[in-house]
Write a structure and sequence with these properties.
The protein has helices at about 15-25, 60-70, 85-95, 115-130, 145-150, 160-175, and strands at about 1-10, 30-35, 75-80, 105-110, 140. By secondary structure, it is an alpha/beta fold. It has a 5-stranded parallel sheet, sandwiched between helices. The N and C termini lie close together (about 10 Å). Bound molecules: flavin mononucleotide.
Length: about 180
Amino acid sequence: MKTILAISGSTRAASVNLGLIRVIAQQYRDRVHMELFAGLETLPQFNPDKDIPGGPSLPEVAALRQSIRAADGVLICTPEYAMGLPGALKNALDWTVSTCEFSGKPVAVITAASLGEKAHASLIGTLKIIEAVITAESQLLISFAQAKIGKDDTIKDTATAGQVRLLMDSFISAL
Ligand SMILES: Cc1cc2nc3c(=O)[nH]c(=O)nc-3n(C[C@H](O)[C@H](O)[C@H](O)COP(=O)(O)O)c2cc1C
């Protein structure tokens, strides 16, 4: 069975993005092994001085890099903060630039936010520059997300549930 590493750009306990990851993991449990990256909040701040080519990585950074390397694909679900990406998510991506974990890696992106267009575009731009493989079918923007995703880990909005299914079906079949 293929493995997908899921990363929530929100570290909030009641996050709709985390809820979305849980719904997807449950829905697709017979087709794919979904692993949640739990270390976003404790990653050190990116500093090129601590990112020495060929040198030892900080343990938290090594764990992030290894989790991405070991996965067949990566699913990122994120909110938008102040018209951009949450800093914790951008920080994690910055740690992969020199070591190229995303190069050639299939990635699906869901931005679930109040509006979310800016974070969505920014994330896709960053992922493309680090050579992640993102198709038109593997990106989805869910605006007004709090109204569409229930606190009980359900997708209340039927159209959104269908869009998530289309994205995941196409993403998994391409792994
Ligand atoms: C500090 C802060 C800034 C935010 N800025 C934006 C924003 O610029 N655009 C937007 O669409 N939503 C914004 N939001 C709303 C979040 O995207 C929304 O609450 C989302 O559901 C949070 O994701 P989560 O439930 O996974 O934590 C902001 C929320 C916070 C807390």
